[in-house]
Amino acid sequence: MKLKKITVENKNKFAIEITFIPFTVILENDRKIFGTIYESPLSKKQEILILNETICDLTDEDLNKLKEAVLKEYHNLLATTEQRQEENTNNPEK
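Request: output the structure for the sequence above.
Response:
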């Protein structure tokens, strides 16, 4: 997973940094769905943007399930990463 950060200057002339995390979901039929997770700098809430134009046959319920699954996996990955960083801090190599 690669993090991409952009900085946007708004009309009030202060910069907002937005982090984008691209992802790919492979469905059972080998169909790929591309998207990105981004974190709103103001609300600190993660949102998902699906980039495929080929998802028109998916129901809103299916899309919501997909988004929930991606965010769940993202949060699991964050928790694992934070745990590893904490372990490395508490047990530095000699």
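The mean pLDDT is 74.
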